[in-house]
Q: What sequence folds into this?
């Protein structure tokens, strides 16, 4: 249970372009449809500077264990090696696994079939079985938990890009911190009404046939460091419920970007930090790069 749950949690933490390339196939990443500042359309590693403090680096990740991605480019490796501390979206430890396990299951006697109806429940079971995903215990899972399971490719090695970076920082004895808590990340979906979770599950099932293609296209755009292309890819998958979609985007990216900016400020004041977040958090009017520039930092691409 725990090894699988760890993969699940990594995928959930992506919440952007990632191993879930989470919700890429069902449009959760398409917040990049919003106006993207032209200067922030190309690049994954960005230097963040302010007066009289050593520069820090912000790196956009894609949360996958694909071997094409986890081979660390030299400029990224150099910036990480030379940094004094490492920050990621959220720290993954035993407590985080317990919190996820508690949140993803109903604890009030409800079942998934009761909430989503027999027809949709049967469709969920068929798709899980067809793709070799576990069905044990699914009857007690909340709709958002099933969405996450369907929205990440089966792990091949378990060495997700975020873990690769964290392991390197650990080996170099760097302080490691998270910009969010697991509870905050879980709340993005867990606090949605069950009716809205069900609508999102329906959307996920509707687009699931295109999942592998969407993942591959996102990976190719990521390897090209093309943030603009990443956004264009998602435009091909229009959501069925625009109101709910905008609500999810606000919770998934806009609100979290503001929170992460606030919390990385203290790290930037220390200087020489290496900060890794999902690439979807970088571009756009409400993206971290634009928010940092508006806050007075010099933001320049490195790689």
A:
């Amino acid at each position: 249970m725990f090894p699988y749950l760890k993969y699940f949690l990594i995928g959930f933490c992506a919440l952007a372009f990632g191993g879930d390339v989470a919700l890429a196939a069902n449009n959760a990443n398409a917040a990049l449809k919003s106006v993207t500042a032209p200067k922030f359309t190309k690049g994954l590693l960005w230097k963040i500077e302010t007066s009289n403090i050593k520069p820090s680096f912000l790196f956009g990740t894609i949360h996958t264990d694909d071997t094409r991605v986890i081979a660390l480019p030299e400029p990224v490796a150099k910036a990480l090696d030379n940094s004094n501390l490492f920050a990621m979206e959220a720290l993954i430890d035993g407590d985080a696994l317990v919190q996820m396990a508690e949140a993803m299951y109903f604890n009030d006697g409800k079942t998934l079939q009761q909430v989503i109806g027999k027809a949709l429940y049967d469709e969920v079971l068929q798709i899980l079985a067809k793709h070799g995903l576990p069905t044990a215990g699914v009857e007690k899972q909340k709709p958002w938990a099933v969405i996450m399971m369907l929205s990440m490719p089966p792990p091949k090695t378990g060495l997700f890009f975020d873990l690769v970076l964290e392991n390197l920082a650990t080996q170099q004895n760097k302080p490691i911190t998270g910009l969010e808590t697991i509870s905050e990340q879980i709340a993005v979906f867990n606090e949605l009404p069950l009716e809205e979770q069900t609508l999102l599950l329906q959307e996920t099932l509707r687009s699931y046939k295109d999942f592998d293609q969407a993942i591959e296209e996102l990976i190719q755009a990521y390897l090209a460091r093309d943030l603009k292309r990443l956004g264009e890819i998602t435009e091909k998958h229009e959501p069925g419920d625009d109101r709910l979609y905008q609500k999810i985007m606000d919770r998934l990216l806009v609100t979290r970007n503001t929170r992460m900016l606030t919390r990385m400020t203290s790290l930037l004041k220390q200087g020489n930090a290496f900060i890794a977040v999902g690439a979807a958090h970088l571009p756009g009017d409400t993206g971290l790069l634009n928010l940092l520039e508006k806050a007075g930092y010099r933001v320049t691409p490195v790689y």
